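Notebook entry, structure prediction.
Reason for the run: the old model in the group folder had no record of what sequence produced it. Starting over properly, with the input documented here first.
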Amino acid sequence: MKLSQIKYVRPDKDQFLKALAEFKQRFESAKTVEEFYAVHDEYKAFAEKASTPIHIAFIRFSQDTRDEFYAAEQDYLDEVMPQIGVAQAEIANCYLTSPFRAELEKRFPKVMFTNLQMSVDANDPRLVEDRIEENKLTTAYRKLMSSIVVDFNGEKLPLSGLGKYFTSNDREVRKQAAIALGTVLEQNKAQLDEIYDKLVAVRTRMGQKLGFENFSKLGYMQMQRNCYTKEDIAKFRNNVLKYIVPLANKIRAKVGADLGIDKMYYYDHGVFTKNEPRPVGTPEELFQKASQMYNEMSPETGKLFDTMVESECFDVMSREGKSGGGYCDGIPEFNLPFIFANWNGSAGDIDVLTHEFGHAFEFYKSFFIESDFLSSISMETAEVHSMSMEFLAYPWIDKFFGDQTEDYKFTHIGGAITFIPYGTIVDYFQQTCYDNPNMTPAERNAFYNQIEKQFLPCMTTEGIVALQDGRRWQRQAHIYESPFYYIDYCLAQFTALQFLALSQQDFDSAFAKYNKFLDFGGTKTFVELLDECGLESPFEEESFKMVVAVCEKILGL
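New structure, fully documented this time:
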């Protein structure tokens, strides 16, 4: 089945809710556990088919946010999904309150019940109207950012297309690209502030309706934080400051010495080598190389990649009207993952291809897990899948970069390490905003500036409008669209660096361990998975010493 051939039919809210109510009644009236299991199997098939149009609408809207039909469909879904979410939570509650709970716990892992309880609590019916408002606000942010067109270097670029200039060999070009970014953020600051003000307010209101002081606890529920706490994240943050920031400073010092840069500005932060490594070949040629790589990596990865190409499940080229960023989504009814990106000719094109294919590989495996609830994987675990795949591509990376391969590896590993302090900033910023919901825009910006200087001491935004005022965070879509979804990248990057180290010693063994990590799906928590696969926890100080030592050795620092 090709993506373009999948017919979209608007989900009828009333029929959807009626079907969910009937499933709820059947679960509750089951006389035996076998009867309960039969309803369970039917519900899984129903959920796959019923959710597919929702994914299709989102994909087609993000492919062109100017498309009036799919923009209207997205608006419609923003309205109805919170109500459907409540009804789905009532299904989840059937498992929690079932008279057969003890027998269910023998078939399904403990984490499933933990996650179901979080889902029930987070989808309280009292929050429906607030969630509708939240959805409309995040859609407004997406529309605003995708509508921005930047006149730069003789081109009219979507904001995502500007990224290729941030890693240019020409420092003046990088500087002007950074100024262009700052300028558009400055031009849109009133709308960006207003949207975030309203998001903080509505999310705070939701948390308080559930009896919490603010949004933070609800935010953790929504992100399935089922094995670590806010206090654990604070420990991680402190160890990042103690161990990763000094390592990042060493990397930036080496880059500065190699490039003859005395003072590192924001526009130098994405550069690691004298000559910027760029993929060699047309997009079509790069896909042929990727097919060869994944077919040689394993029969399973090869078959999946080629199936996705044949099914039109890649949309990677940047263009006007297209939503920014990249993601992997799933089309459950057809067992197809879909990869969305905004290629711009930089090394990041290969990063996003390998990264999202790691997600796609897990999506594919999860389609066959026995419960729809167990294919729901917490985000830090999901990001291990994707970030580790970036490193597992190394034996084939010369196909994409030729004689620039070593420059690419230094850039990629250096970027992974220096990313962790930035990602930690994003989470710290969000935590502070939601713990202090009455902060003004100026106070938020001042706090962002403060922690950016603390965690990225080797970089300055001086001289760049908006960025020097602490507005860099407004470019980070996760802060608006997915609260608390960013520390996941840091925990995952920390874990992925362990897969890098293992693959340098024995690739086949590392890939087998990676497959084992994926095969568990959502049947174990993140911390349980680390233990099961013999990986170090990011919440322990000793693990930081190990990871830093390995990275210093690989980078020759």
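Summary: Residues 3-134 form one domain.
The old model has been moved to the deprecated folder.
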